[in-house]
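// run 5 | inverse folding | seed 20
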């Protein structure tokens, strides 16, 4: 405990040291010394900034000050126009509430998918019914939520392998989970957890994607409601929520989903067991101290109060058993959501605790599911548990209990190895060579270390640090190619760094995030950073990387008149301009319209103030990339009508005037002419 406090003290007093930002290497110009030296080197850019871009490759490289290693790295990553990437990374867009789609190894940004936050280019949340319905699904009964703190994306799996069909991502800020359909890379569903305000933004799928697991975070009275912090131990509770995914419908089935009530520790990240540990879920926790925060100089704040214990508890959940119990009469409903009460979880032997050192963060199951690695933020080790030993300890009946009566398995009986790595181990990913990679936040480094057991075919010593690669700076997560599957690819690793400091052009005090691509193709100590990708959307947390050829997205929608909400032909589709019509019934007006280069039909729509307007617009195009927009500024509407798409908008014509509507995609040479007028006649005859 003393050690932890010391470390915390260091954190508070010497941030430059703990953040590893190497301020000693930075002078007041904000430039690291190294960089200054480099730029005054011979062979660096000539004074005045002019760089010779003509000449041979060697001459250009010399003129730009590129070393042979730089050139090698450029060759590894450079991807010429028209050549496609081998991998696609789906990264959290952080507070942006979006998902970043990035090609690898080029690290080119391919798309930003609007998920929790309205996104105008995709017409996400600007009138298109299909998207308004999605966003509404994520609202609370009292508040529309229009931002998110997206954390962990999770690709759907079949047999423990990414299948390229769906992507899930969690919103920490609002305890929500999103479903994105990778046929059109659009968000189809948001679900709001009805029993908690906040989670850790984690989504973790089981090997066949029957369940999407959401760990909790800060304990609350379950389902909302008030209780003073003095009653924390009794009235506050944590949760682990299991969302049932209906693959055929491409939606989470809320009615079949459930949560397990757990003690008011702060549950954190989870991972699903696979193969050897299939059917189990592992989540970690912090604050087993039950700290409640204190005001005033003599109080113990959370930072220290929640870091006293040498061990917190990994939660191991027998999901197969839990799913059975969730169907039965022992459950309760909290805000209409099925919950397995803590005592039932104990009695039915669904929930087990396993001590984990020290302020644990990441929990990461190995590819074949035999081991579980924990990174303790205030520990120097990665701690590896053996799932077979966990089962044996359960069978042997060897356990204690925590104050809530949850069985606690003996640490020594279930641990396989502790591997000393360095300061601030967080998250671990795996490759195809029997290595594990752990991010070291305080060291600003990525550690490569050897797994043991079946993973060691090369005779190397198991459970040993092999090498560390410095990163710039303060890495949070790592993402590895196919890294969370039963058969990771190796090749590439991305370090998702929290700080960038001096890596990029100064763009003001809010700096870009820094994704660093690391080449992990060779075994042993060679594991260099080969590319930096500044990310101007923050703060990305986790990412997953899939083989590009597993993605089979539509090139255009399969039929003209496609509804992206139902992923089927819309009942409101029309397939030719002959079918364009306007129908009026009292003050209800319904319009069936089309878009095709380079005109809308109709180009005049005549309304009366107060009309209830429903408008269906079909993009008749069948050619790839022939997207049209539909902007009606007076009503805050913007649609993205992709080839074949039908969208519906509904509004009350309460703003009189002669309103132009126009196409917001530069679709043709006569794109400017793609316009129409919506004439809303004032209800009084008096001129405006
Ligand atoms: S976790 S702070 Cu993924 Cu490291 Cu959220
Ligand atoms: Cu259609 Cu511009």
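// decoded
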């Amino acid at each position: 405990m003393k050690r932890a406090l010391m470390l915390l003290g260091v954190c508070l007093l010497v941030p430059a040291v703990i953040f590893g930002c190497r301020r000693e290497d930075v002078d007041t110009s904000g430039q690291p010394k190294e960089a200054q030296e480099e730029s005054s080197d011979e062979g660096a850019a000539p004074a005045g900034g002019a760089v010779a871009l003509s000449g041979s490759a060697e001459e250009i490289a010399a003129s730009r000050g590129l070393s042979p290693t730089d050139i090698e790295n450029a060759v590894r990553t450079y991807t010429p126009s028209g050549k496609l990437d081998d991998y696609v990374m789906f990264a959290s867009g952080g507070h942006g509430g979006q998902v970043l789609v990035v090609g690898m190894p080029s690290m080119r940004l391919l798309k930003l998918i609007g998920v929790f936050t309205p996104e105008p280019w995709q017409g996400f949340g600007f009138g298109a019914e299909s998207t308004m319905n999605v966003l509404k699904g994520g609202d609370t009964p009292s508040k529309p939520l229009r931002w998110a703190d997206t954390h962990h994306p999770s690709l759907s799996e079949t047999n423990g392998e990414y299948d390229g069909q769906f992507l899930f991502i969690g919103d920490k800020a609002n305890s929500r989970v999103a479903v994105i359909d990778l046929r059109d890379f659009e968000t189809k569903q948001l679900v709001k957890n009805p029993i908690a305000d906040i989670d850790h933004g984690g989504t973790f799928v089981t090997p066949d994607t029957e369940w999407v697991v959401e760990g909790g975070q800060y304990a609350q009275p379950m389902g909302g409601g008030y209780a003073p912090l003095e009653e924390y131990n009794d009235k506050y509770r944590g949760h682990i929520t299991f969302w049932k995914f209906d693959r055929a419908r491409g939606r989470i089935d809320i009615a079949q989903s459930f949560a397990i009530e757990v003690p008011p520790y702060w549950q954190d990240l989870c991972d699903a067991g696979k193969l050897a540990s299939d059917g189990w879920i592992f989540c970690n926790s912090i604050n087993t101290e039950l700290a409640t925060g204190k005001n005033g100089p003599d109080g113990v704040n959370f930072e220290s109060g929640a870091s006293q214990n040498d061990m917190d508890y990994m939660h191991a959940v027998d999901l197969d058993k839990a799913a059975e119990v969730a169907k039965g009469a022992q459950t309760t409903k909290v805000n209409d959501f099925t919950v397995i009460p803590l005592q039932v979880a104990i009695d039915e032997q669904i929930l087990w605790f396993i001590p984990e050192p020290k302020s644990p963060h990441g929990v990461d199951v190995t590819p074949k599911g035999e081991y579980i690695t924990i990174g303790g933020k205030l520990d120097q080790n990665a701690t590896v548990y053996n799932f077979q030993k966990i089962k044996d300890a359960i069978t042997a009946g060897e356990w204690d209990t925590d104050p809530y009566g949850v069985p606690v398995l003996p640490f020594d009986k279930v641990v396989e190895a502790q591997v000393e790595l360095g300061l601030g181990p967080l998250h671990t990913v795996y490759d195809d060579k029997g290595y594990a990679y752990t991010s070291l936040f305080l060291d600003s480094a990525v550690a490569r270390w050897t797994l043991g057991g079946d993973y060691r075919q090369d005779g190397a010593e198991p459970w040993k640090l092999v090498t560390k690669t410095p990163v710039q700076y303060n890495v949070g997560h790592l993402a590895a190619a196919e890294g969370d599957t039963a058969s990771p690819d190796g090749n590439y690793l991305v370090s998702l760094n929290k700080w960038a400091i001096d890596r990029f052009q100064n763009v003001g005090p809010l700096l870009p995030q820094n994704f660093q691509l690391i080449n992990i193709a060779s075994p042993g100590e060679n594991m260099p950073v080969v590319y930096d990708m500044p990310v101007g959307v923050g703060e990305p947390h986790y990412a997953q990387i899939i083989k590009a050829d597993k993605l089979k997205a539509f090139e255009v929608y399969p039929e003209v008149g496609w509804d992206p909400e139902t992923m089927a032909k819309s009942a409101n589709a029309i397939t030719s301009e002959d079918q364009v019509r306007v129908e009026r019934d009292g003050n209800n007006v319904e319009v069936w319209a089309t878009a095709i280069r380079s005109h809308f039909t109709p180009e005049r729509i005549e309304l009366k103030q107060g009309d209830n307007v429903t408008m269906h617009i079909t993009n008749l195009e069948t050619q790839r990339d022939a997207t049209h927009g539909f902007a009606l500024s007076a009503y805050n509407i913007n649609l993205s009508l992709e080839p074949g798409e039908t969208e519906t908008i509904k509004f009350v014509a309460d703003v009189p005037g002669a309103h132009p509507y126009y196409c917001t995609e530069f679709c043709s040479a006569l794109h400017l002419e793609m316009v129409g007028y919506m004439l809303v006649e004032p209800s009084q005859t008096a001129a405006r």
